[in-house]
Amino acid sequence: MRNSKPSRSFASDNNAGVHPEIMAAIAAANDGHVIAYGDDHYTARAVKLFREQLGRDAEVFFVFGGTGANVLGLKAATESHHAIICAETAHINVDECGAPEKFTGCKLLSVRTPDGKIRMEQIKPLLHEVGFEHHVQPRVISVSQATEMGTVYTPRELKTLESVAHDNDMFLHVDGARIANAAASLNVKLKTITKDAGVDILSFGGAKNGMMYGEAVVFFDKNLAKDFKYTRKQGTHLPSKMRFISAQFEALLSNDLWRRNAEHANRMAQQLARELARIPRITITQKVEANGVFALVPRQYVPLLQKQYFFYVWNEETSEVRFMTSFDTTAEDIADFVGLVKKTVK
After folding, report:
1. Burial track 324-340 (b if 16+ CB lie within 10 A, e otherwise)
2. CATH 3.40.640.10 domain extents, the chain
């Protein structure tokens, strides 16, 4: 029996397929034998492209997924008596099943924010017990770019956090699962919101921007990368057939594909937000700066809409929902979904 639901959803950019240029790169890499574990020309070319985008001194390591990238990157900068400061909504705090705490041994110190963005004044109270042996010692400020609320840190905001971190012997980590969407939104180079902003560790996302799988851990502080090859292996994230991740990144970072994909997803989110805002009982709750739209939808209509389109309820108490767009979302997808909302929400 054929599934009557549309082939597109607004649940997550993880639900999207693989961009044709990346699929072609995977197929092209599937030719003959190359040395395993990254000693191949695909990986060398991909790393070269990363350095062109992020700076020639960037140390780049490929891993399977985003949780692994975050956990291993944080592990490289911490000891078990340290703490990691993050937003309450951060992926490392909410959606990684306790992996950061388990594998780093660190305590997460989460702060409540209205839009997913940490402010300098929220960090300072957490620094009062630095040097006191009875308390965990803050070691990393971890931010999501774009945030889980669809908002984006400006270069100036990142530099402010970098100053707080480095002035207090801490590191700045960026969960960049949607770093491409952030750069596209700001219309800046990737380097502008990473190396130039004082970021020390970056998880660079691929799967949410058109890749099949694969992320990169990037160190701008070379000292943190010194033993990372062992951390990655021990952390079960050393791909034997690394060429199939590397080939994807080579395609993503060539011909501005990363930016084209992100710009399109962002543009579709803006279009969706504009259309939904015109519906009287729908309220957009966050600035739409990347590819996420957050909205209040009367709770009685949510299951009716979900019968046709898959999306997540973000806050059950307030009936706030999240709609995500992807590189393959079309204007027709938006129009069809908005048409359903108009017919359903009275």
Report:
1. bbbbbbeeebbeebbeb
2. 20-252
